[in-house]
Amino acid sequence: MTGRFALMIDPVAVEEQRSDYADTFTQVDAAAPALSVGELSTQRGDGVFESIGVVDGHAQEVVPHLERLAHSARLCDLPAPNLDQWHQAIRAAAVQLGSGESVIKLILSRGVEHGPAPTAWVTAAPAADFAAVRERGVRVVTLDRGYDLGAAERAPWLLLGAKTLSYAVNMAALREARRRGADDAIFLSSDRFVLEAPTASLILRFGDRFVTPAPNGGILHGTTQLSVYEHLAAQGFETAYDRIPATDLPRADAAWLVSSVRLAAAITAIDGTSLPVDTALTAALNRYLLSPR
Ligand code: PLP
Q1: Which of 222, 225, 171 minimizes the C-alpha distance to 203?
Q2: What local confidence, expressed as pLDDT, does residue 31 receive?
Q3: Atom 10 of ligand 1 has which residue's CA nearest to it?
Q4: What digits encode the pLDDT tens for the residues 101-129?
Q5: Which of 53, 118, 199, 251 can bridge 111 by disulfide, Cβ–Cβ 3.0-4.6 Å?
Q6: Dihedral in degrees, nearest 10, Cα atoms 200, 75, 80, 198
Q7: What is the pLDDT of residue 84?
Q8: Which ligand 1 atom is at minimum distance from the Cα of 261?
């Protein structure tokens, strides 16, 4: 594929759960005007989204992504996504993407202020080239997220477990990481437990045991982490969800940031202290993540 495009879902169909509404979308060129000036996703970030990795025209882990879209929509009091409709739109986008890596984004927004319905659309575009970072790894710094581990339960309106369109804080954290001479960040709770990266989940290895922070509403449950866990468990490794104190980070035998498009990036240093890198396992994880899932 050379260009970018979007599939705008018919607003009448967004709130309906009818399967005969599944193909009610219109394709537009990414450069063409498509959103209204009153659109709340652009004015307030009031909506939810998903980014799906596509390899050689195959969209990866579509069902877990749609499950998380539905979960995020529920947390934001948005209508339940019509899953048939999103499946169909993803298929329609994926068949137009040629060989190589691409990204399909699903966006479900509150819609136009005082408007009759949510706005929903799917975009498709070539992915950035992450081959070098998959090989070289990333240096990370820890950053305080400013909430304790109990915040998600105590204050659900913070939407900490939803993948909302409001990513300004996540992008600011990445800029801060770069200012500190790193490539990426790991958020810590204010009570010093490990959370997630601004756009990725964290997996740590201690011997033959792999551990990731429990997604108890305070962080996203990563579809890539779930997929990696299935793969590791099939190979006989122990996989676990846990509360991980920040003091455990430098003790890890290896660590990765994992996400749908960049895939697995080994962490080479945390706050300036080097971490062991398992080059062979990182390559094997990325081979697996690039295979049809
Ligand atoms: N955590 C956050 C905050 C993210 O933004 C992402 C992905 O964008 C992830 C975790 C990883 O999720 P996934 O593996 O589904 O891409």
Answers
A1: 225
A2: 83
A3: 200
A4: 999 999 999 988 887 788 999 999 999 99
A5: 118
A6: -10
A7: 87
A8: 16
Mutation test residue for ligand 1: of 260, 285, 286, 288, the one with most atoms within 8 Å of CB: 260
Look at ligand 1, atom 9, and give the residue with the nearest C-alpha. 200
User: Residues lining ligand 1, CB < 6 A?
Assistant: 51, 196, 198-201, 220, 222-225, 258-260
- Report which ligand 1 atom has the smallest distance to the Cα of 68: 15
What's the CA-to-centroid distance between 95 and ligand 1, angstroms? 24
Nearest CA to ligand 1 atom 12: 222
**pTM of the complete model:** 0.95
Q: Which two tokens stand for residue 52?
A: 């799906």
**Ligand 1 mutation target, pool 103, 229, 259, 263, most atoms within 8 A of CB:** 259
Under 8 Å CB-to-CB from 34, ≥6 apart: which residues? 6, 8, 28, 121
Which residue, among 199, 198, 228, 192, has the nearest Cα to 212 in the 3D structure? 228
Give the chain's mean pLDDT. Answer: 93
